[in-house]
Amino acid sequence: MTETTTGRTTTERHTALYDRHAELGASFTDFGGWQMPLKYGSELAEHRAVRETAGLFDLSHMGEVWATGPGAGAFLDYALVGKLSAIAVGKAKYSLICAEDGGIIDDLIVYRVAENDFLVVPNAGNALTVAAELEDRLAAFSASSDAGKVALRNASDETSLVAVQGPNAEAIVLAVVRAQDAEAVTGLKYYAAVEVEVELEQGTIPVLLARTGYTGEDGFELFVGNDSAAALWDALKAAGEGHGLIPCGLAARDSLRLEAGMPLYGNELSRERSPFAAGLGGVVALKSKEGDFVGRSALEAKKASGEGTTSGQRLVGLKGLGRRAARGHYPILKDGAQVGEVTSGQPSPTLGYPVALAYVDVELSAPGTKLDADLRGKAEPFEVVELPFYKRQK
């Protein structure tokens, strides 16, 4: 909440880095109630920096919920669709939290920081919803299980998250961590996390360093307390000056994740869609996980019905064969009849042609299928292609 000059409060929220963004001349946008930088100058330049050098992002609007205790792994197995108890210490797993009917409440990442300590990171707009859902599910789990004590702590309001993404990300992070932590950085695998210390002018601070991201590039996310966020941002920005790093906003983040074929909640993922329709059936541990979990019965029925494979619709990638881009909610046509709808779409700065994600009837979801997008009354040709659109060279 923020207070206005009239003494009234608003629901507008600011991260601990808001002043840094304002000083840099950022254009702000509302995202889940947060005032977040949309761009600082050219969103195209920010996009290209991440693909070619490095970009610096404020992701502090994301949620952070800790599940701790001897029964934390078993609880998350019950609360989420994946087998989270199988995560090795220091590793991470992408998962979903679904409703009883199989609809997606949110997609999230779970880090196993220690044997009994798990960090659940939901999306910004769903952070409060996910935290409340986990509390409700813990009550049901505790009443029916003797797996051990579990405690939940929503640390979202006290935690900042800064990301460095791009080919030069590792070099930039190495420049700010202690020398004795360098091997931990270089040896960190994708979807893994390690605790390191960053050297700042006022001394060292502990940081949870994760090698994850949402851009299709190599990169790191750094979890830190709000009181150290500005100093961490400044240190990374200074370290990146010789590596082509520039601050990047949500506009570049969106175009980058679209090129990488990564879904966005509220666009590709929603309560109305199941994991199978979204192409995320592999995330649902129906075979590898014993016992019940929230949504299991509905998800078993959806899989048995062939949802997303032989029936209903499926999320696909579309490559534009013309020059005009399809946008969210534009109809997808086959021989003039609507067979789907675009969820995200824009010109690809990296590839040089329009790309889109869309739900289409499963019989039209095979790569190579020619479809049209209804661009305000004019049919524009597209072709179904394998995802991701863009894949970095390792």
List the helices and strands and how they pair.
Blueprint: E1 2-3, E2 9-10, H1 18-23, E3 27-31, E4 34-39, H2 43-52, E5 54-58, E6 65-68, H3 72-79, E7 92-98, E8 104-114, E9 117-121, H4 127-144, E10 151-154, E11 159-165, H5 169-174, H6 182-186, E12 193-200, E13 203-210, E14 219-225, H7 226-239, E15 245-247, H8 250-259, H9 296-304, E16 313-320, E17 331-334, E18 337-347, E19 354-361, E20 370-375, E21 378-385
Parallel strand pairs: 5-15
Antiparallel strand pairs: 1-2, 3-4, 5-11, 6-9, 6-10, 7-8, 8-9, 11-14, 12-13, 13-14, 16-19, 16-21, 17-18, 17-20, 18-19, 20-21
Helix pairs in contact: 2-8
Brief overview, please?
By secondary structure, this protein is α+β, with helices and mostly antiparallel strands.
Number of helices: 9
Task: Give the helix/strand class.
Answer: alpha+beta
CATH homology superfamily of the largest domain = Probable tRNA modification gtpase trme, domain 1
> What radius of gyration results from the CA coordinates?
21 Å
How many E strands?
21
- How many domains, in number, for the residues? 3
Beta-strand portion reads 25-35%
Query: What are the secondary-structure elements, in order, as H or E?
Result: EEHEEHEEHEEEHEEHHEEEHEHHEEEEEE
Neighbour order of strands in the largest sheet:
12-13-14-11-5-15
**Helix content percent band:** 10-25%
Largest sheet: 6 strands, mixed
**CATH domain topology of the largest domain:** Gyrase A, domain 2
CATH architecture of the largest domain: 2-Layer Sandwich
Q: What is the CATH class name of the largest domain?
A: Alpha Beta
